[in-house]
Write a structure and sequence with these properties.
Blueprint (H helix, E strand, L loop, with lengths): L7 E5 L4 H12 L3 E6 L2 H11 L3 E5 L5 H15 L4 E4 L14 H28 L3 E6 L12 H21 L4 E8 L5 H5 L16 H12 L10 E4 L21
Parallel strand pairs: 1-2, 1-4, 2-3, 4-5, 5-6, 6-7
The structure holds NADP nicotinamide-adenine-dinucleotide phosphate.
NADP nicotinamide-adenine-dinucleotide phosphate (NAP) binds next to α1 and α6.
Length: 255
């Protein structure tokens, strides 16, 4: 028996990047998966490539009516909803002094309010299914501040807090809620910003989307049944602490 046999999952922002890797890993682990995104052509093609275990649905996470339709689609296509992965996210760059109000609001609307709306929309279906697992994709930027990413950092800290509030509230329904905190992962989003340096990453490399997918499969499965309201970090050691220069390599001075 596979780890996610019999589970139905909805993954947002799943047409590409980390969301696509999560959807693929879940389907490979036996789940039926709703691939939700605003990129309709990419999302449709990706769902077809996965096969009969996947369907595509258009979902802009800022729109409550889209959420309602997406949850209904999951129930219609596969009979229920057990897992929600709130993955869709955007980045905006700029120092606070120069950050446009519109960029601030847009970032919070997608990254934080989108997660709130998703949790809210999924509760009735998960309750009917006898419980479920909600996985919110935050970031290393939900654990640490970063210059030039004020709205993104605020949204990702918000996701971490909302996860804990939701976990407390939904435990009585058997619905677990956890946050995942990826570091630098090689995707279109991370490659669009300033060139990322691996100097501050103890494992000295970027992560791959599949490495986040593997963690999410665990959180979606019953293997993680005693975990809720928790933070799961997948960042090559980046948030473990600061690397002290001169003591960070294999040179004699560092030994
Ligand atoms: P990505 O490659 O840009 O993929 C994100 C997907 O979400 C895109 O298809 C995007 O479509 C879609 N999306 C944007 N706004 C949406 C909306 N309103 N409703 C539904 N879908 C929407 O990003 P990624 O790197 O895979 O990131 C996925 C998640 O991981 C995000 O929450 C991100 O903050 C988080 N994360 C990423 C990294 C990293 O290094 N990559 C690190 C930490 C956390 P568009 O192309 O139209 O925007």
């Amino acid at each position: 028996m596979s780890r996610l046999d019999g589970k139905v999952a909805l993954v947002t922002g799943a047409a590409r990047g980390i969301g696509a890797a999560i959807a693929k890993a879940m389907a490979e682990a036996g789940a039926n998966v709703l691939i939700a995104d605003v990129l309709d052509d990419e999302g449709q093609a990706f769902a077809e490539a996965i096969g009969s275990a996947a369907r595509y649905v258009h979902l802009d996470v800022t729109k409550p009516t889209d959420w309602q339709k997406a949850v209904e689609s999951a129930v219609q296509a596969f009979g229920k909803l057990n897992v929600l992965v709130n993955n869709a996210g955007i980045s905006t760059y700029g120092l606070i002094e120069h950050l446009d109000d519109h960029d601030w609001e847009k970032t919070l609307a997608v990254n934080l309010s989108g997660v709130f709306r998703g949790i809210k929309a999924a509760i009735p279906a998960m309750r009917s299914a006898g419980g479920g697992s909600i996985v919110n994709i935050s970031s290393a930027a939900g654990m640490l501040g970063y210059t030039g990413l004020p709205a993104y950092v605020a949204s990702k800290f918000g996701v971490r807090g909302l996860t804990k509030a939701a976990a407390l509230e939904l435990a009585r329904d058997g619905i677990r809620v956890n946050s995942v905190h990826p570091g630098f992962i090689r995707t279109p989003l991370s490659m669009a910003g300033p060139a990322p340096s691996t100097d501050a990453i103890p494992l000295r490399r970027m992560g791959e989307p599949a490495e986040v997918g593997n963690l999410v499969v665990y959180l979606a499965s019953d293997e993680s049944a005693f975990s809720t309201g928790s933070e799961f970090i997948v960042d090559g050691g980046q948030t473990a602490g600061a690397i002290v220069w001169g003591f960070d390599d294999d040179s004699d001075a560092a030994r």
